[in-house]
From TrEMBL:
PROSITE patterns, per database record: DAP_EPIMERASE
Native source organism of the sequence: Tigriopus californicus (Marine copepod)
HAMAP family: DAP_epimerase
Keywords, alphabetical: Amino-acid biosynthesis, Isomerase, Lysine biosynthesis
NCBIfam families linked to this entry: DapF
Protein's recorded name: diaminopimelate epimerase
Coiled-coil boundaries: none
PANTHER family: DIAMINOPIMELATE EPIMERASE, DIAMINOPIMELATE EPIMERASE, CHLOROPLASTIC
GO annotation (BP), single: lysine biosynthetic process via diaminopimelate
Record-listed E.C. numbers: 5.1.1.7
Catalytic reaction annotation: (2S,6S)-2,6-diaminopimelate = meso-2,6-diaminopimelate
InterPro entries the UniProt entry points to: DAP_epimerase_AS (IPR018510), DAP_epimerase_DapF (IPR001653)
Pathway membership, UniProt: Amino-acid biosynthesis; L-lysine biosynthesis via DAP pathway; DL-2,6-diaminopimelate from LL-2,6-diaminopimelate: step 1/1
GO CC annotations on file: cytosol
Length: 269
């Protein structure tokens, strides 16, 4: 069958409830916000949380297998996406027939490994506090602070004393535009269980809104929890439960490289 001239093949993956359209392209002329907005629309297009675009690596990054660009549902470009990166690693590992993949991203060079189909690990990067804690009283949250974290992309991590979190979709839409963040931010609404053993997180992603999971957001959450000593369990691992009823374990071998591993299932739709 002859394919139309404007035909663009794609893969659809999900990781921890985050779903992605994955495009393997060589032509950057196709990368237009209006195209991504249509593709991501769940009624008029295919539907997804983010679009991952695989492109040839730049000549200056000769050790990289590919370059990826990440686009949100509103057409804006993101620096990083942990779950999406894992899905891309699975695509490339199968295509290149090797398990270890190195990627050039806006957040820097990332590497990952496909241990088996659906079992993919990515070195997410070294998180750091971007600023001091922000008082959120003006947003109707007296006594609550938000912790700005940079893990290649921006996050605002907020811990509550229990799971009676206020209307987080309304708050997320507002806090995404907090003036401390030049290019908007992702927002994590978190609470720790009574045994201080795991963290439950509700995600608001910049440019995408409410999502069922966020790999880089979970890493940022784990980083804050360990830095503030909020957990009473073995600090070499942090378990996080996200809204899709999926639980991910984040490896913390040493405090200096907290939250570098984002390991969970990546599945082909």
């Amino acid at each position: 069958m002859e394919l139309p001239e404007n035909y663009i093949p794609f893969d659809k993956y999900q990781g921890l409830g985050n779903d992605f359209i994955i495009l393997d392209l060589a032509d950057e002329a196709i990368l237009r916000p209006e195209i991504f907005q249509l593709l991501a629309n769940r009624r008029l297009g295919v539907g997804c949380d983010q679009i991952m675009v695989i492109m040839p690596a730049n000549a200056s990054q000769h050790n990289c297998d590919a370059r990826i660009r990440i686009f949100n549902t509103d057409g804006s470009e993101a620096e990083a996406c942990g779950n999406g990166t894992r899905c891309v690693i699975q695509v490339l590992a199968k295509k290149l027939r090797r398990s270890h993949i190195i990627l050039d991203t806006k957040a820097g060079v990332l590497s990952g490994t496909m241990h088996s189909i659906g079992d993919v690990e990515v070195e997410q990067g070294r998180p750091r506090f971007k600023d001091e804690a922000l008082d959120l009283c003006a947003y109707g949250l007296p006594g609550i602070v938000g912790h700005p974290v940079d893990i290649g992309n921006p996050h605002l991590v907020i811990f509550f004393s229990d799971d009676t979190i206020p209307d987080f979709e309304r708050l997320g839409a507002v806090l995404e535009h907090h003036p401390k963040f030049e290019n908007r931010t992702n927002v994590e609404f978190c609470c720790i269980d009574h045994n201080r053993e795991q963290i439950r997180v509700w995600m608001w992603e910049r440019g995408a809104g409410r999502t069922l999971a966020c790999g880089s957001g979970a890493c940022a959450t784990a980083f804050v929890a360990l830095k503030l000593e909020l957990l009473g369990v073995d600090k070499s691992f942090v378990t996080i439960q996200m809204e899709a009823f999926t639980t991910a374990t984040f490896k913390m071998p040493w405090l200096s490289i907290l939250a570098t591993a984002n390991k969970a299932r990546s599945e082909y739709d």
